Amino acid sequence: MKLKSAIRYLTNASDSGFGTSFSRPRYVSLVITKKCNLRCRHCDIWKNEDSGRELEDEKWLRALEDIKNWLGAQEIEINGGEPLLKKELVFKIIEKCNQLNLPVSLNTNGTMIDRDATQELLKWNLKSVKISLYSLNPLVHDELRGLAGTFEKTKQALDCLNELRQGKGTRVEIGMLLTRQNIKEIDEIISYASLKGLDLIFQPLDFNIDADYKNNWQTKSDLWPEKDQVIKYLKPLTEQRSKIIKNPPFYLKLIYQYYLDPDSFKKRQCLAPYNNLVVWPNGDVALCFRSNVLGNISNSSVREVWQGEKAGLERKRLQKCQKSCKIIGCNIKKQIKDFLL
After folding, report:
1. Taking a C-beta distance cutoff of 8 angstroms, is the pair 205, 221 a contact?
2. Which CATH number fits domain 27-339: 3.20.20.70, 3.40.50.2000, 3.10.350.10, 3.40.1010.10?
3. How far apart are CA 318 and CA 321, in angstroms?
4. What is the DSSP letter of 233?
5. 55-75 burial by CB neighbour count: b if 16+ within 10 A, else e?
6. Residue 147 phi/psi, 5° resolution?
7. Fewest 10 Å CB contacts: which of 18, 42, 216, 255?
8. What is the pTM of this model?
9. What's the rounded Cα separation, in Å, for the pair 320 and 123?
10. Centroid of chain to Cα 295
């Protein structure tokens, strides 16, 4: 079984030595807005008061047709900022994905999901809604989110979604970003999610989104856990086999290793350039959330951008990338040494 998995890995990454890619993206993220109603400490998107031009709704819908024609039943993930600040566009995208038989998921902070919004979301075939819940302590959650009252709104959104999704196929997922402030709550969050029947995804801390990357940023971050915290609270998580935890066991082990020695991840191969496709609010296309712009869906098809000369050059550049964000779930894949874990 491990041999077959290793062969599959080599097949998926076989084009990593070339300037162009024969692969197709496995992760498509539509970042429909950079605007956000929160002030999270781990993210700088909200600091962009002028988020620039945003694509017209019709162009987003046309891009979905383009993706369908090229990739078939490719899952689409709606992201932000806070995507529900553009609620009508979110509904249009979900409806269009349903018409095209494209699986679609939504990432949200949950603060804008009331009963009416829940009913509208669940009117369609929505694969999953992921809501970030960073602590069961309102003070800790709100501190990390940067705005008082966020915990209650998030909890109400989870309860509302969980109630109204009954009889439907929509998964409701909790995303927990692991920080110094909440790492001791891992067991509590697992118990809470299990009691509610919710899925759970643990997320490793990365350098602030939309900020200029700095080497060794972890040593200056007051969100980064102490080593003794990592060993005490995170190591036991690597042995968890709960069905509600959606991180694969090998990934939980990698997260643990990452918090012990983040620099070791700079040496890993980044597969994001061969797996990821990100479309920014203005239609710009990139291979990951920190890479250069390759083109724009206003004047090129998604496929043309993915297979273009700029994309090939960017893949070559990213082969030498020394950032530790290779741990992030959207771009990490099992590498040969991981089959030994």
Report:
1. yes
2. 3.20.20.70
3. 5
4. I
5. beeeebbbbbebbbebbeebe
6. -150, 125
7. 216
8. 0.90
9. 45
10. 22
Is the pLDDT score of 226 beyond 60?
A: yes
The ranges assigned to domains in the chain are 27-339
Res. 34 pLDDT band, cuts 50 70 90: very high
Task: Read off the pLDDT band of 210 (50, 70, 90).
Answer: confident
User: Which two structure tokens, joined as six digits, stand for 307?
Assistant: 């297979």
Q: What pLDDT, in 10s, does the model give residues 105-140? A: 999 999 999 999 999 999 999 999 999 999 999 999
Q: Are 141 and 154 in contact (CB under 8 A)?
A: yes
Quick one: residue 125, left, alpha or beta (phi over 0 = left, psi -120 to 50 = alpha)? beta
Q: Are 20 and 287 in contact (CB under 8 A)?
A: no
Find, among 307, 96, 328, the residue nearest to 201 by Cα: 328
Lookup: tokens for 202 = 């643990």
Half-sphere exposure of 14 (CA within 13 A, CB side): 9
